[in-house]
Design brief:
binds dinuclear copper ion; Immunoglobulin-like; alpha+beta; 3 domains
Length: 334
């Protein structure tokens, strides 16, 4: 086999190896190709039709190129040639691209349809998500963080703001992305339909820990969502065991309550995430760890190694048993 032949076969073997992993990336909880709601389904349709249009254009233009260079190589009269260039090079792309643009724009209003009552305010922080639920008619919000839950089958309005840097909220399986801009509010409405766990990710480069700014999006049956929201509105459970009480005392003595609120206690800080029902969430530290003993201990002792430039200092002076007690207390906050 010639050198070039060997290179080509090595290349195609490599692409055979790479292809399944690329296709595998189309699956999973963070894929725009696996829509879980109306908005993502529309965006997928736009993508597929645009892709179809691009393929038609590509095939038509390359087909003509091949035809006139390989098949019919007779001399073409200047007038005839000009007609081909204007027809295939100007008129055809203008018609195809223009039609795709008009159709794509006609879908935009439905992406901005008003919500059905539930409002969720999300503020982009460094590098986590402050979340507040405002059910219709609510006088005060129900605070949470780093997880957004939706009732299936209705349209929820997301009011987006940011503290210092520009972030972008994106749940690929549920819809498009929307920037979060300091000093102003942007609005995104989403209509999820399929219950399940999805993943969201900050989609605007915002600094050192941009890639570590993720969250879970959970779509629930409406009655399950209402029950869950009522639980979230309740104060935190009291510590039950000696170890949990010891953990709460460490939380108090280390001043954690200056930054974190735990409703139902004297801890009312607002700098960091609300921890009232931390253990009911699917993840810790904005989608990068689990709410379980080892991860909690690891996070508290090594915050800045795990998430560069995060505001929370690393409590690396705490002894292992103190970290464990703290983790046990936080794990009890269901
Ligand atoms: Cu927040 Cu990128």
């Amino acid at each position: 086999m010639s050198r070039r032949g060997k290179q080509a076969s090595r290349g195609s073997a490599l692409s055979l190896l790479v292809l399944p992993s690329l296709l595998g990336a189309c699956d999973g909880p963070q894929s725009a190709l696996m829509p879980g709601g109306q908005d993502a389904a529309q965006l997928l349709l736009i993508f597929l039709v645009m892709l179809g249009g691009a393929i038609v254009l590509w095939l038509a233009l390359n087909g003509m190129f091949l035809y006139f260079t390989q098949v019919d190589r007779r001399h073409v009269a200047l007038r005839h040639g000009n007609r081909i260039i204007i027809g295939a090079g100007v008129v055809l792309p203008t018609l195809v691209v223009g039609a795709l643009l008009a159709w794509g724009l006609s879908i935009m209003p439905s992406q901005r349809a008003p919500g059905d009552g539930l409002v969720i305010r999300v503020n982009g922080e460094e590098w986590w998500w402050r979340v507040e639920y405002w059910p219709a008619g609510a006088q005060e919000p129900i605070a949470s963080a780093n997880e957004i839950r939706f009732p299936a089958g209705s349209r929820t309005e997301l009011q987006l703001t940011a503290s210092t840097y520009i972030h972008s909220l994106w749940i690929p399986s549920l819809g498009g992305k929307m920037d979060m801009i300091p000093g102003r509010q942007t609005v995104l409405t989403l209509h999820p339909d399929l219950e399940g766990f999805y993943r969201g990710q900050c989609a605007e480069f915002c600094g050192a820990s941009h890639a570590l700014m993720a969250f879970e999006a959970v779509v629930m049956a409406p009655e399950d969502f209402d029950a869950w929201l009522a639980e979230q509105a309740a104060p935190a459970p009291e510590p039950q065991s000696d170890l949990q009480r010891q953990g709460q005392a460490i939380f108090r003595d280390e001043g954690c309550g200056a930054c974190h609120a735990i409703r139902g206690t004297a801890f009312t800080g607002t700098v960091g995430p609300d921890l009232t029902h931390l253990a009911s969430r699917a993840s810790l530290a904005a989608g990068i760890m689990e709410v379980e003993r080892d991860d909690l201990m690891n996070w508290i002792a090594h915050t800045r190694d795990i998430k560069p430039q995060v505001a929370m200092p690393a409590y690396d002076w705490l002894a292992r048993d103190e970290l464990a007690a703290l983790a046990v207390y936080l794990e009890s906050l269901e």
